[in-house]
Amino acid sequence: PVEIRVVASDHDKRIQASNALADYLVSLPGVKDLTRDDEPGKPMIRMDIDTEKAARLGLTNSQIIESMSIALKGREITTVRDGDETISYRLQMGKAYTRNRDLLLQLPIANQRGRLIALRDVVKFVDRDGIPNYYHYNGDRSTTLYANLEKGTTTPLAITKLVKNHVAETPLFQGIQLVYGGESEETQKSF
C-alpha cells in the first residue's frame, strides 16, 4: 500500500493539495481504493432554536435544551432500595420516538405559565456533515492519503517516484510537506 501524509499549517492550502494529490493518485495505473483520514464523521443533526419565538411563547433556551437532553439521554427520577440493592428509575423517551424526527418534534415543553408548547414551534433540525478527525504532524495539521495497488501493475516505490516528480512540477505543492509511509518507506529504510 501507499501512504502519503500532506502537512501544512494553512488549512485551505492543505485541503487543496490533498484533493489534487488524491486526483493524481487515482489517475495512475494500478492505484485503487484511495481513502483519506479527513473524511467527514458521522452525519449530525443540529438543533436551531428560534430564540425570539421561544421567548414570546415563554420558553428559554435552557428549558428547550434540558427537555431534549431528558428525551434523548433520560434523567434519573428516583431510586428505591430493595434489600442491599438500589434500583434507579429513569425517565426517557423510547428509541422509536427519539429516532423519528416527526415524533420528536411533537415533544411538549411546559412554559412558565404551564402551557405546553410543541418542540416544532421553536426548533428546526438541520442536517450537517459530521466533524472529521483532525490529525497533526510536528504541530501542523495533516491529511493522510492511503491507496492500495493492483498486484503486478506497479510498486509503492514507483508510485512514490511518480508523486515526487509530480509534486516538484506543480506550484500548488510549494510550502506543503509530504511524508511518505507505507511499503515505500519500509523499502527505503531497508537500503
3D architecture notes:
With 191 residues, the chain is α+β, with helices and mostly antiparallel strands. It has seven helices and eleven strands. The strands form four sheets. Strands 1, 2, 9, 10 and 11 form a five-stranded antiparallel β-sheet that branches. The protein has a two-stranded antiparallel ribbon with strand order 3-8. A two-stranded antiparallel sheet has the order 4-5. A hairpin with a 2-residue loop joins strand 9 and strand 10.
Topology:
Elements: E1 2-7, H1 11-27, E2 31-36, E3 44-49, H2 51-56, H3 61-73, E4 75-82, E5 85-91, H4 95-98, H5 101-104, E6 108-110, E7 116-118, E8 123-128, E9 135-137, E10 140-149, H6 156-169, E11 177-181, H7 182-190
Antiparallel strand pairs: 1-10, 1-11, 2-10, 3-8, 4-5, 6-7, 9-10
What tags apply to this protein structure?
5-stranded antiparallel beta sheet, 191 residues, 7 helices, two-stranded antiparallel sheet
